[in-house]
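Before we proceed, please read the two lines closing this message. Let me know whether the structure tokens fit the sequence:

…
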Amino acid sequence: MGEQFWRVLAALLTVVLMALSPPAMAQIPGLSRSIPSLPPLGGDGMPPLADTDHYVRGIVDEALQAPRRLTRLARRSDRRLDVDPNGWPVVAREIVVIDLGTRARPTILAAGYVIVREERLEALGITSTVLAPPRRMSLDEAMEMLEQMNVEASVGYNHIHAPAGAIAGSPYGGLAPAGVMPVRPRLGLIDSGVDPSHPALAGSPIAQRGFAGPPRMGAHGLAVASLMVGQSGSFRGGAPGEALLVADIYGGQSTGGASTTLARALDWLVSEGVPVINISLVGPRNALVERAIARAQALGVTIVAAVGNDGPAAAPLYPASYPAVIGVTAVTGRNSVLPEAARGPQVDFSAPGADMAAATQAGGWTTVRGTSFAAPIVAGMLTRTTRATLARDALDLGLPGPDPVYGVGLVGSASRTEPRSVGARGRLRLQ
């Protein structure tokens, strides 16, 4: 019996087991949708191999599809963005190669590829090379040909990462001041720029740097920052008054949030000695970002990320789903999980993420909802305690013990501020 037979048999067993065990299936991100009936059995008691292979691939491909709200980014980008085969937005005509060797360069250039830029991430020990495809060749075709060339390097798209629940309307304000570099930064934020003059942030030493142009103030980044280090009246973030470094990877640009930009931001934060970094963004699995996060973790950095708001049946979202990243889901004021929150083994903790206030532009307050706003609370708390202690003290919700809905349980309840108590107006609406 050949390799194809065993591959198909394993796939069939997986499908059958999921069909027989709906509760278990519901815990697998992206695979909890109802599964269609199996194709009719052939004369030997097995479906035709080609039909079975196509069937299984269809299930896998569906699980990897980008949420619709993210596919729309490419349509609004004036052709600066494209999509990968699964619909995830990518920077148009850019291929990212990690640690490209010198022997492969002449072959790649001879094939018509053009080196657009090359970046050395010194703190992470990574070199990324961005290539443009040969003329009259689509991005997907260029990717396929490059993979067939066996360049002995990791090749991938330059994926776009979006806030874990994009904000409707115009999320960007004016240019954000760089601030003064704190002597001992304890927290890092990869998001949009923030307004350090907001009353919630006035007591925290804040410095920020733009990686997609000058830093620009954004509603999402400001709200997240306030829930990390904010304090004003009754409002308290996860680590009130803590020093914060902000890496703005958007700059108000349509190509903001690219994988290469995120990796550069991470490299900067690691070079500055930041021990805990929050990333309330989502995207697909990406080789460069995965490598950068793994290198940061190897250097002792803790990465916290929002698990996303695209529903329990959505594909796994990253960076929350990378190994050892602390994934955070959100609960309401009644401590029930948000219906739109992701589910799966990537959920480590629950934290407040709805029915609560956060800072907004012009010195005001607004009501927020989403896993974006739960993750920074956990990140802040991890500057003052260990993960083990946080897990020990968590309030167990849902099924006894760790589960794919609430993780080990709820932390950070003290950081939920009633919107009325600070005069919050409106809300950051999620698209």
